[in-house]
Inverse folding.
């Protein structure tokens, strides 16, 4: 009957990954442009290495270099297929006990990119066992430890980066640890000194340092300072999605959703950027919100059907701020906290736990804050 | 190797966990088995970017893949797909023939949508093996949606599990149980059936005095009338449900929906006229026939596609009866209690009936084209 029809239809509509729901079409003109791809270039380093590999398929150095180029391209061109291409290239080598460190580190980068932190750590341990002075492996291991809220465990790796001759990276690495272990002011001084002494720092280092300073400023309660630093960091590294997202979060928090929206108008936006767009549109009562939400639902539903759940943070934020489902938000924030403990994740769990008056969850955050020495003015009352 | 690049790769993580711009390499495959015969329709939507990677679609290298460049490589694209797609039914391979090639967007990314017609000589369980791009990209997944004679299925194929096998058909008992649940559920959410049933129940504990109502004298007298009417309604809708579900009679959904709405209006109005009490038994039977077709349409919408008819139909009918019995079990003691109250006979029953008739009129208006 009618009601049944509605229920059945709703059940089908909920299954957004359903291929049958997508309209097909035939373009009228043959010159209709379906997709833009990189134009064929003779000097593309990827093409050059691919050709070299054909002549020397057993050369692990070429394999590692090509894998690194693929990963690099995946990030700069925002084309995740290159991660898959790199993985297909590296996988047979990674399984060999004599796999070189470079190659293991590139594969670890692929794994951490899809949030398989445990798998990435295992490969980095192997890489470091083979090449104890490999700065890249130490830095990646330190970064994963810090993202997961184990800053103290990253100390040795940061020192190893420093002593391998990479003093800039080592300095920022150590500052980041200081900032997460109860010595925020010291960390801040260290990064400022670095920036003062090295005015000609390469943009990626500068962007990283400024982004870190912004996080410190925000946790000190200086939102205006944080915003200024994030704008500078974004200018240095416009492709850094973390910096862009953090800046949008600040703008939304100080009720400037229009400014945030202007920063979010990018092609093929990720769930993270779409989530910020949705919150800004919600504040502005923008009717385009429903289209944004539909896009997010589609991305999440395909990820779920693929058996992946890489967007717990964004899902929790959506549940909290858009769907206003605090129960779901808290469950997601808890699961997210198990995976990553950056400033935004800690605040998210505390906020969701307060909404539900969940003492146990608040105590868990408080315990972690006490044990790690993590400073955040916003969460100050949890320290006691 | 450039060290700054390695370190920068590590930094992408220090500053943020890079999150995919769009879900990585996913293709979408839909297969649908015809009710009878050898045919299975297959639609496979594959990202243009992935096809380009294998076949270099940008033939002139200008950085733009045009529809002309895709259309001219139809055969090559179809071969690429069929080389990585295998359907079997009853253990025997099906032959695939390309019917059409179109475009379809998924998550804002263009896909070529390949429509195939598969010919499967033997009946039996379907299997699908789809491995396109698996050896070139371990993150590739094929999301599949399959409709077979046994039901609807969704799954995901990956390099480590590239094959989908149709599950064995559920047992007769399991089908029966499932459809008992569906029958109960349908009555609970089908407001129009509930409204009609309640309209039949309301006056059943009253007796007409010609111009007014009096409460039936004893439990036996009151319940006898109620049970007669419910039985008539049940018998009638069981007959038409069976006729329609077995395909012996086909009545389109729209007139049935209209007639069901009308049945509520008429039953509601009749309850206002004590003298018309005799008309209630034929009314229950006559509209019972109509409601049976309504149940059959609901059953058809549940997608009984291929499930065994007897347990499906029996289960659904039993479920409907159980739900009705539930309503009667709750209503009867209440009605017995209030039947002698003049407020019930003179006010509550007519007022409720009038409201239901008005609701029925509104549904009637909404369902009439």
């Amino acid at each position: 009957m009618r009601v049944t029809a509605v229920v059945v239809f709703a059940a089908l509509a909920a299954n957004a990954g359903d291929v049958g729901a997508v309209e097909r079409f035939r373009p009228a003109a043959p010159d209709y442009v379906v997709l833009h791809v990189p134009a064929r270039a003779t000097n593309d380093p990827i093409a050059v290495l691919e050709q070299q590999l054909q002549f020397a398929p057993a050369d692990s150095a070429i394999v590692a270099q090509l894998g690194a180029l693929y990963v690099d391209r995946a990030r700069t061109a925002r084309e995740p297929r290159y991660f898959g291409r790199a993985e297909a290239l590296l996988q047979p080598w990674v399984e060999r006990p004599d796999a070189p460190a470079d190659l293991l580190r590139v594969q670890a980068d692929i794994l951490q990119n899809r949030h398989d932190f445990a798998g990435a750590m295992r490969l980095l341990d192997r890489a470091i066992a083979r090449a104890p002075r490999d700065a890249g492996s130490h830095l990646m291991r330190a970064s994963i430890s810090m993202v997961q809220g184990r800053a103290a465990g990253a100390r040795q790796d940061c020192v190893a980066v420093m002593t391998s001759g990479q003093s800039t990276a080592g300095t920022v690495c150590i500052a980041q640890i200081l900032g997460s272990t109860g010595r925020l002011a010291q960390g801040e001084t260290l990064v400022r000194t670095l920036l003062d002494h090295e005015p000609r720092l390469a943009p990626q280092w500068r962007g990283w340092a400024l982004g870190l300073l912004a996080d410190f400023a925000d946790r000190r309660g200086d939102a205006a300072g944080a915003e200024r630093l994030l704008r500078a960091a974004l200018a240095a590294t416009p492709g850094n999605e973390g910096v862009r997202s953090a800046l949008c979060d600040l703008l939304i928090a100080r009720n400037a959703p229009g400014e945030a929206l202007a920063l979010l108008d990018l092609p093929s936006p990720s769930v993270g950027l779409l989530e910020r767009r949705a919150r800004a549109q919600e504040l502005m009562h923008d009717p385009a919100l429903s289209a944004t939400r539909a896009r997010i639902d589609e991305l999440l539903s395909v990820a779920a059907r693929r058996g992946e759940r890489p967007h717990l943070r964004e899902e929790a934020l959506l549940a909290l701020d858009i769907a206003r489902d605090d129960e779901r938000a808290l469950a997601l924030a808890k699961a997210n906290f198990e995976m990553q403990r950056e400033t935004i994740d800690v605040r998210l769990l505390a906020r969701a736990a307060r909404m539900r008056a969940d003492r146990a969850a608040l105590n868990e955050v408080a315990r972690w804050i006490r044990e790690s020495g993590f400073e955040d003015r916003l969460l100050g009352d949890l320290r006691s | 190797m450039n060290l700054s690049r390695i370190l920068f790769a590590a930094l992408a993580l220090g500053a943020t966990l890079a999150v995919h711009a769009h879900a990585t390499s996913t293709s979408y495959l839909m297969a649908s088995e015809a009710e009878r015969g050898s045919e299975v329709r297959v639609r496979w939507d594959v990202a243009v970017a992935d096809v380009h990677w294998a076949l270099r679609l940008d033939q002139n290298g200008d950085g733009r893949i045009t529809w002309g460049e895709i259309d001219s490589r139809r055969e090559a694209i179809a071969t690429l797909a069929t080389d990585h797609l295998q359907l079997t039914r009853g253990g025997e391979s099906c032959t695939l023939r390309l019917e059409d090639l179109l475009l379809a967007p998924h998550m804002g990314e263009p896909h070529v949508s390949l429509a195939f017609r598969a010919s499967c000589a033997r009946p039996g369980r379907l299997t699908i093996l789809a491995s396109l791009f698996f050896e070139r990209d371990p993150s590739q997944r094929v999301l599949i949606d399959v409709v077979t004679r046994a039901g609807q299925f969704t799954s995901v194929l990956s390099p480590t599990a590239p094959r989908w096998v149709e599950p064995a058909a559920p047992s007769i008992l399991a089908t029966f149980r499932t459809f008992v649940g569906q029958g109960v559920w349908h009555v609970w959410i089908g407001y129009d059936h509930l409204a009609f049933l309640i309209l039949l129940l309301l006056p059943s504990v009253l007796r007409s005095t010609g111009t007014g109502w009096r409460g039936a004298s004893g439990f036996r007298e009151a319940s006898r009338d109620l049970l007669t009417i419910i039985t008539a309604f049940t018998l009638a809708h069981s007959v038409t449900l069976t006729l329609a579900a077995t395909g012996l009679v086909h009545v389109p959904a729209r007139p049935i929906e209209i007639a069901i709405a009308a049945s509520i209006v008429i039953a509601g109005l009749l309850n206002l006229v004590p003298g018309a009490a005799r008309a209630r038994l034929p009314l229950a039977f006559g509209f019972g026939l109509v409601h049976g077709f309504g149940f059959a349409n609901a059953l058809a919408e549940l997608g009984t596609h291929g499930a065994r008819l007897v347990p499906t139909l029996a289960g659904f009918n039993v479920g409907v009866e159980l739900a009705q019995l539930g309503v009667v079990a709750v209503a009867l003691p209440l009605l017995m209690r209030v039947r002698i109250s003049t407020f019930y006979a003179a006010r509550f029953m007519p007022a409720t009936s009038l409201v239901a008739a008005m609701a029925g009129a509104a549904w009637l208006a909404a369902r009439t084209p």
Notes: The longest helix of chain A spans residues 203-220. Residues 204 and 237 of chain A are 6 Å apart (CA to CA).
